[in-house]
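Sequence in, structure out.
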Amino acid sequence: MALSVFGWLWLQRTGAPPAQDSLPTTPPVLQTPSTTPTPPADAPPTPTPASPDLVLAPAPTPPTPPPAKAPEPTIPLDLSPGATNPLGTVVIRSNRPPPLATATNTAQDFSLSDTNRPAVGVSTPRQILGMQLALVRRGFSSGSLDGKFGLQTKSALRAYQEREGLPASGTLDAATRNSLALETDLTSLYILLPEDLSRMRPLSKTWLAKSEQDRMDYETVLELVAEKSQSHPSLIRGLNPEMNWEAPQAGMTLVVPNVERPPLRGRASLIRIHLGSKTLQVFDAEGKLSLHFPCSIARDKEKRPVGELHVEKIAVNPNYTFNPEVFPESEEAQQIKRKLIIQPGPNNPVGTAWISLDRPGYGIHGTPQPEQVGRTESHGCFRLANWNAEQLVKLAWVGLPVQVDP
């Protein structure tokens, strides 16, 4: 009995040795907690072996696990171009081929003068070009696009205002701006193709040499690009200031005006030519104005027919018969003394379209110099830019009335 009491006292001072054959269990109160790992909170309890000589305290309640951390609120991403987010900066990419590093497609970089501005409403080449493009898409051409507010642009704008029942001020006022809806891309990209380069032809200076050419095609790439985009060559140069026009190569990307022709519906009911304003207008079957073009007229007033004419023949990509009798001022014509045939092409004397009228020698046709339309005079015919003449022949028909007003 004395030995048992002594042993109990000794255990109270030193602590009982751990059991040798048992698995790790929840430690008794008298044992150092760090000597045995605490089992998971959801583990089943392990029975503790009974000992007649050792009284153990009940196992403590396992600690309650901390509550799960609430998820952080989702922060919406700003997907606007250039916005900074935790994941980085938003970059919007396009599959359109980029312009050359030396090119620009911002209208404020035009190498154009700000002269000839309208009195109100329009003040920059960018705004004027946007207005010209919007008018073209509605059938109102100012001739070669140039980003300048000249007489032909003002004439096209006034004609549009009259058709739409707006005040015919000839300026881009608020009502006209809303009607035209100018929210469009001003420029697009044009990639030079090998086929473009193969079309180049040196333009002969004499009528005889011209008659020997296989085709009257474009003489330069600048001429080709300008005509395809209905633009003045100076505008194309301004949009591509670093372009070497003397050494063009296939694959080069150029910035050009984003021009679109209006859709054509039905056929025309009347062509009206105004000699005073040097304009040609087309009316649809309902008598509504559908197309407006600048045109050149005869230099000699006696050769300007007034009254009603009619369409007699229509030809696309015509050849041209040079008659020396029509050019008495030409020394070469007087020496040749015979007719010559000039092959088709945009540099053909009548351009890419011809409409013969029922007065001998008179017609409506294109021209190899579209930027001069309305600014120079002809021998008697009515000249249009090639792209406008091509539109007109699609609406014309044999017998169509052509009214020529003073």
